[in-house]
Amino acid sequence: MKLSTKGRYGLRAMIDLARYSEEEPVSIGSIAMRQGISERYLEQLVAKMKKAGLVKSIRGASGGYVLAKDSSEISVGDILRALEGSLEPVKCAAFFSEEGCMASEGCVTKYVWQRINDSINHAVDEIMLDELVKESKEMNPHGVYDHTKCTHSE
Q1: 3 state DSSP class of 27
Q2: Average pLDDT, 10 consecutive residues per value, the chain (154 residues)
Q3: What is the C-alpha R_g of the chain?
Q4: pTM to 2 decimals?
Q5: What are the start-end ranges of the E strands in the chain?
Q6: Beta pairing class for 55-58 and 64-67
Q7: CB 14 within 8 A of CB 81
């Protein structure tokens, strides 16, 4: 399974938002600057997360974005699904369609795919945003990042 930049950048943005919106709403521009993400792209990601009920916007001169619920109630899985859709690397028809697949009666690999899917979902649903914020504050108390050193192979 490969996550796109939507998932990777969106998770970074949500950690940033959770970290800095404790006092006041956070602007897209400030997240973009700290995280090294284009404002235009970040707007698209935040719109998806807003639609999923993870963030909300505050209007006005001191407006911006805040979490829609406590960071202890938002999992990495919630964020990734809002941005990427299903996280299942294998969508086996034996489990996901009424007709099943032609080989489902004698196919044992469907159990492998199901265990992989279940493991991924379990792992991302277990990690909560507040844990990542705490780790972020410990690792980087001043909040200054050098994302030029952060590389992800595509």
Answers
A1: coil
A2: 89 96 93 94 97 95 93 98 88 61 70 88 97 92 68 52
A3: 18
A4: 0.84
A5: 55-58, 64-67
A6: antiparallel
A7: no
